[in-house]
Inverse folding.
């Protein structure tokens, strides 16, 4: 399992994530959840093994060759959404209200 996490985590960099958000962010419905993961991962109180899992989740979303290609209309983002949901569930106790508040400031009308 650690090999898989490390494999996908290597596709994550802050620059790649920002580029991904700029180019693709408007197309995906789970953008606030991605940003919640990002802020949780940036927090110094988040343990390293949780950060690795969150990096792997972001790396999987950024990775152009998914289990289900993103170009498939309506279905391509399902696997990405499932990975994001699983990562948030895994990191649940480390996601602070401050992380959600930062996302809410960006998306005031969405539920985070």
């Amino acid at each position: 399992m650690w090999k898989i996490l490390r494999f996908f985590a290597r596709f994550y960099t802050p620059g790649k994530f920002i580029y991904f958000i700029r180019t693709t962010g408007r197309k995906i419905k789970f953008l606030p959840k991605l940003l919640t993961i990002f802020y949780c991962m940036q927090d110094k109180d988040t343990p390293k093994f949780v950060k690795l899992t969150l990096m792997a989740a972001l790396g999987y979303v950024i990775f152009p060759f998914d289990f289900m290609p993103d170009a498939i209309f309506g279905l391509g983002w399902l696997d990405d959404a499932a990975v994001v949901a699983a990562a948030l569930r895994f990191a649940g106790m480390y996601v602070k209200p401050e992380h959600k508040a930062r996302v809410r400031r960006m998306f005031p009308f969405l539920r985070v």
